[in-house]
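To whoever picks this up:

The parser on our side crashed when reading a file containing two proteins. I've narrowed it down to the boundary between the first structure block and the second sequence. Both blocks are reproduced below exactly, byte for byte. First block:
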Amino acid sequence: MTRSTNCWEATGRENAGNTTVPYAVLPASIPTDSTQTIGYTRSFRYDDSGNLLSLSHQGAACFTRTMVVSDASNRSRLQNDTGTLTPDDVDAAFDPSGNLLSLQVSATASEQLILDASDHLQTVILLGRNGDIQQSDREIYQYSAGMRMRKQTRILTKADSNLWTVDEVRYLPGLELRRHWQETITGDTVTPQDPTEELHVITTQAERASIRLLHWKTGKPDSIDNDQARWQMSDNFLCAGTGCAGANDQSRRILSLRRYCGVGGTQ
């Protein structure tokens, strides 16, 4: 990474298939085959207060993100495709505590963010239906002592029978309980089906390595052995935000790679 006055430039490698111009869409992950990656350069421009003004990317795709900064605060938003967003429009996208109220996912669409009284993210509306949260596709988060204890994703599968597909993770010390099931809601009555997948993940940490043991109670994929161990390791540059992290199985095969982009973000 190099720096000039109010500008930074970073280089790295990305998936050669990253050809879509992103908003909140996650880029394709780094393939383990290096021949399927391509180099990129990112340029960052800031104002005198350190607020990001623009990000230019040259790689598998070429794009520029332009930010609009409020005149009354250091809050900012991504400029829309028509270029009509003004500094006066920025603060309306935040609550009085400075929390973002919606997440932009495309040029014309955004996801509503709902926070609780402690400023924790409580609900993300993935697909709204007639302004009714209970009939909207959504993610729900619950906390205890400031730590996330539960995440649930609810997708309406059949509207005529009010059939929902549910994915849930419960976070316990050293253990994650993951389940996938469907349920029907009639009035105040919820009728859940038996889970089609239930995965218990034992987690622990050893210096820079994270170890996860995967135990399927039901619904194990045929291609994966039960009670399989996964190691996630990072290099010495991880704390600087410029390093690389990888995941290996118990046979030391590389399963995935993650590289850390300049000035935040991973892929």
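<<boundary where parser fails>>
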Amino acid sequence: MGEGKRDGKEARRPGSGWTGLGYAGMNQIGNMVSDVCSERERVGNEVLTIAEVTIDIMCTLYI
């Protein structure tokens, strides 16, 4: 019975943490990503680093 309670608590904890991150964090991350995306368009750099490829993927997901 004790283990059942513990499992329930562990299952609930990531959900509430993700919800908090979802509302506050995702807005902030979304704004940051869109800023970086518009910055990349302005620069128009042809050389892609791993970070820039990751940013391109994030841009595709967020826009």
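After patching the parser it read the second block fine. DSSP finds two helices and no strands in the chain. The chain has one domain: 2-62.
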